[in-house]
Amino acid sequence: MTDHLSYLVLGLGNGAVYAAIGLALVMTFKSSGVVNFATGAVALYTAYTYVLLRTGELMVPIPGLPKSIHLGGPLGVVPAMAIALVIAAVLGVLCYALIFRPMRNASVVAKAVASIGLMIVLQAVIAQRVGTQIPLVEPIFPMKTIPIGDSVAPTDRMWLAGCVVGLAIVTTLAFRYTRFGVATEAAAESEKGAYLTGLSPDKIAFSNWALSSVLAGLGGILIAPLVSLNPVAYTMFIVPALAATLVGNFSSIWLTVIAGIAIGALQSEATNLQNTFDWLPKTGLSEAIPLILILGFLVVKGRPLPDRGAVVRQALGRAPRPERIVLPALVSIALAVIALMLTTGSYRAAVITSIIFAVVALSQVVVTGYAGQVSLAQLTLAGVGAYSLSVLNTHLGIPFPFAPIIAAVVATVLGVVVGLPALRVRGLPLTVVTLALAVFLEAFWFRNPSLNGGVTGAPIDTPRFLGIDLGIGAGENYPRLAFGVLCLIVLVLVGLGVAWLRRSTLGTDMLAVRANERSAAATGIDVSRTKLAAFGIGAFIAGLGGSLLGYQQTLATAESFTVFLGISLFAVMYIAGITSITGGILAGLMAPGGLLYIVLDRAADIGEYYTLISGILLIVSVMANPDGIASRLPHIPWPALPALRRRAVDEVSVAAGSATSGSSAPAIDRTDPVLAVDGVGVRYGAVVAAEDVSFEVYPGEIVGLIGPNGAGKTTIIDAVTGFAPSTGAVTLGGHDISTLRPHVRSRHGLGRSFQDVELYDDLSVAENVTVGASRSRSDVPVERRVTQVLQMVGLDEMADAEVATLSQGRRQLVSVARVLAASPKVALLDEPAAGLDSSESQWLGERLRMARDAGTSILMVDHDMDLVLSICDRVVVLDLGKVIATGTPEQIRTEDAVIRAYLGMPGGAVDAEHEAIPELHTATQTTSTQEVLS
């Protein structure tokens, strides 16, 4: 028992550093909304600065200048620490001023990716300036021990933990009782409110960035005598620190500090346990602690779909739809074959490396570029493929090509496991999960001699097919052309597969999920299944790439699949263009060891600066060019093949002819309601948002749902469509759908639009409507259905425009078109006329009547009473979450309860005949459809 206590005390040192870095993360997030992945690198930079100052040297971080300046003699602990912390503060201020202040309006994910670039830059600077030599650091705290039963524990860990706890106390008091702390909290709550009260959010952010860097740097200095200075280990301190910060919800200082210290103590005890019990794995157990904590916390806190107003929007750039694939593919294959045939030695090896990394990069295109899930584990999944390949062909005797395919399937299984947290979390927390999993797998498998990992690596046999040697060769034959052709074949197949995926319904679903999960579910997309499909497909591709890397090196080694190398490769992918196939190919050319790397290193000797340049370019890309270099390449107007051109023209002609042909309205049975809402109620804690709401919508009917602001109209639509937990019953077409998930309700014929539009901004108008049409109840082909609906709402000439470029009114029309394209039984439209003027609104009303005549009943919420009262057959009025009136528009205009709800006075006190409530009366002047369209 005493051994366990002594190991827990030993872990207080690392735990204190995790707490200090977590404390710095809280401060930067509160002041600027940045989750700074570079905080561990800041601690590392400060620690190295302190160590060099103790030897009388000042590190110069600028490449090309002397690596350090001699100060004449060693400095003592206090002056060295003071100077190092001042440098840390300056570093924090510069980071905010140059990177994060210009990005203050960017998404949290974009800021986090920029901080990953900063982490790469700082680590590269340290590696280039200091090298890999581990310096010795003199103790700061007294080197004493205290007895714990039969064991002893060092007191320096306790001193370190005590210092961090003291910093937490001071920080807490400062945030709670000083004007600066109150101002920081105010700016975190509302930046506009801070400006209105005379506060400067910029000054507050500058101060917090300086203080957070000092805190991280102090943690790095204090831990330096206890843990050897190692650039990778210090940088990866960010993983347990992020776990602690997530427990504190990026706001609670004390929860963060306690969690950080506890993680360190538990990691130390895990090390003790794996050395005590033979049945436990010899490595990876301590890395599992933050992973388990992160997963447990996010599963409890996460939700399958974001709440209203909590949609995660990510600026990852537009994912272009590949068109005319055949000719570009043939030209690219020809160029690659020529490059393989004309090169030898290291240049041919670089070409092969570029091809292999292009395969891995395409896995990132699927997961991040298409599905919007920022994963830092793709190279780790490639490592899973390589290590699995070693087991399959070396130990089990499974030959090529079955072994790499099965290895890719193994990676797929782990990829789906990586994606499981995405079912309940999204955005930045998911990125943290993938990073923690990558750290765990590297330690647990790749560096574990108990499995097939370890220092010596895992051997991989040469691939042979029908007696033909496809291996990379050795000696003078290295690298063999046959292996290069094999890699090229895999790349071509993967590239064509990814192109097909982008053009398929599944690819469109992925982009819809990336853009807006709530809206995707409302159109019938199974968000969870789509995410898992993206992770599974991406992992399969990464597993194929890892198998090729294994064949190339004839050995699977941990150094080829390290976490930091994976992060660096992610940077290259983002720079090249993480959302397109062209970007994936470019990423292969730009990857470390690839063709561009070799050419630049031979021509300009910049190999040691390559990682540094990659980090800088990643920051610039996030700030100025999220589409990547691929988007800046000149567009080549590839001609379409004659057969394809004729087929495209024929399809358009058929679609246009069908769109212009009229159809008679079907006979409608009005005896039973198509939608019945019975006693629906919604509560948020003690707040009653809706109570005992009941109404019906019959076939061929347009029903208005109106009421004052805050009456609960959108809440009822959320409840009916499954986006809000509710009581009561919802019946669609005679079937109870009350317990079904939103996407299942949509597939049963319940369509909806959203109050704040919630379109897929990365897609074109036609692609937005295609998402709805792909699950249409209509027998009309999808392309023809899209053309018909776009013509009906007057957007056919803007089919190829990005919806992000449209006016608010046209965006509303796209939203309505997407709902109607699915031919739902009932369409629930939430403020479809918002942003439209009176004539446009009237024109929209005529289109809604056309949809009604085509068989779609409509429940409509809108504040445009001219529209509601002129096209609705019945109107339901809500006030304070309850139904107060139901009837025809004529009855609603004079209903006493309605007048009281809108004006707060009895109906008898109002001269209804003289339109005392103008919004309950239609306009007397009308405008024809022809005038609207002219």
Determine the structural class based on helices, strands and strand pairing.
alpha/beta
Instruction: Tell me what portion of residues adopts beta-strand conformation.
Output: 5-15%
Query: What is the overall silhouette?
Result: globular
Helical percentage:
55-70%
User: End-to-end distance, in Å?
Assistant: 86 Å
Mean pLDDT reading:
84
- Number of DSSP E strands: 18
Uncertain spans: 307-312, 643-666, 923-934
Largest sheet: 6 strands, mixed
**Helical segment count:** 37
Instruction: Tell me the radius of gyration.
Output: 31 Å
Strands in their spatial order, largest beta sheet: 14-15-16-11-17-18
Keywords:
six-stranded mixed beta sheet, 18 strands, four-stranded antiparallel beta sheet, alpha/beta, disordered C terminus
Q: What do you see in this structure?
A:
Strands 14-15-16-11-17-18 form a six-stranded mixed beta sheet, sandwiched between helices. A four-stranded antiparallel beta sheet has the order 10-9-12-13. It is built from 37 helices and 18 strands. It is α/β, with parallel strands linked by helices and 934 residues long.
